[in-house]
Each structure stands twice: as C-alpha cells, then as structure tokens.
Amino acid sequence: MHKPAGQGTVEALASMDAATHWTGDSSGVRPVRSHRVRLVPLLELPAQAEGLCVFSQDGRIVRKLREDAHLIEQELLAHVTGTLGEDGLARLREGLVLEGRALPPARVSWQSEARLRFAVKGIAPDWVPWMCSQVGLKLVGLKRIRIGRVPMAGLPPGQWRYLAPVERF
C-alpha cells in the first residue's frame, strides 16, 4: 500500500477495501474479502511519513520481514532543509552513534538540492529525522519507495495492490 503522510498504520489498514484497490494491479490476483482478514503490518512507517507499506497474512512473508528485517534494504527519499555540515554526507554513510550504539552504514546520496536518497539496512525509518539533525539538516518529509526488491512503482497514495507472483523481498 502507498500510505499517505499523516495516516497511521491502523487507518491505512482500515482503508484497504475494494474501492482503494489499484486498477493498475498486474498481479493477476482477484480480490476476495478473506484476503483482508488477519493482516499484519510489517516494517511500519511513522505516521508523518508516506510510501510503501506491507500488510500480509502469509506466514512466510511475515517471518521474512520480521526475522530478516535487518538484512532487507529499504530505499527512502528524505526532503530536507538546512545546510549540510562539511563532513555530513560522509558521517551519514559511515554510520552514526545513537544512544551508544553504532548504526549500520548507509548509502546516502543527493537526489536534488532538497532531497536525499537513503538505501539502508537495519535502520528504521523513524531514525532518519534524528540522523538528518545530526548533520545540520531538518527532515520535512519522508517517503519509502522500495523494500528489498519490491518497489512502490507508480502506486498512487491511498491505493494498494497485491504482491505479484514474481516479486520477492
């Protein structure tokens, strides 16, 4: 699901119905009411962030995204303001220290003057505002566009789709 900014996980899950099913879904799965029963939110996003969210009732996917979450890369776009410190990008890439614990290194690059691209493993999206503040930037907006090998790929805000048979996290 492409969760809109300002919407919590519970609200996003409640909005998943036939009316919000993306018409461009190419998975070939026909929506059935039982598909929306006992869905588990995985790799949750903070309410102020938008982007790709995963809900599943498939035990294999739940296990993979819970037990191997630290191994799965997430791609995030961070809209920022402020001035990046002289060694700020290097500090973000090498890993910062949060509460005495070293964060894993991240692949960070500029997408535009106001947007950073983070490709991270083992870093929760809700740590990104803190990471930006450590290098002189203020996070204005955050959007997750990929989890593992599954991209959001044109999914409109508030819409959801099924995982295609060839897609794997």
How would you explain this protein's 3D organization?
It is built from four helices and eleven strands; from the N terminus they run E-H-E-E-E-H-E-H-E-E-E-E-H-E-E. The relative contact order is 0.25. The protein is α+β, with helices and mostly antiparallel strands and 169 residues long. It has helices at 9-14, 59-67, 88-94, 128-134, and strands spanning 2-3, 40-42, 50-52, 54-56, 74-82, 97-98, 101-102, 107-112, 115-120, 137-147, 150-151. Strand 10 (137-147) and strand 11 (150-151) form a beta hairpin. It starts with a strand and ends in an 18-residue tail after the last strand. The strands form three sheets. Strands 1, 3, 5, 8, 9, 10 and 11 form a seven-stranded mixed sheet that branches. A two-stranded antiparallel ribbon has the order 2-4.
**How far apart are the termini?**
15 Å
* Main sheet overview: 7 strands, mixed
- Output the radius of gyration: 17 Å
Query: Mean pLDDT across all residues, rounded?
Result: 95
Total number of strands: 11
* Estimated structural class: alpha+beta
Instruction: Estimate the global geometry from the Cα principal axes.
Output: elongated
Percent of residues in beta strands? 25-35%
Instruction: Please give the share of residues in helix.
Output: 10-25%
Helix-strand string: EHEEEHEHEEEEHEE
* Stretches with pLDDT under 50, minimum 5 residues: none
Number of helices: 4
Task: Show the helix and strand layout.
Elements: E1 2-3, H1 9-14, E2 40-42, E3 50-52, E4 54-56, H2 59-67, E5 74-82, H3 88-94, E6 97-98, E7 101-102, E8 107-112, E9 115-120, H4 128-134, E10 137-147, E11 150-151
Parallel strand pairs: 3-10
Antiparallel strand pairs: 1-3, 2-4, 5-9, 5-10, 6-7, 8-9, 10-11
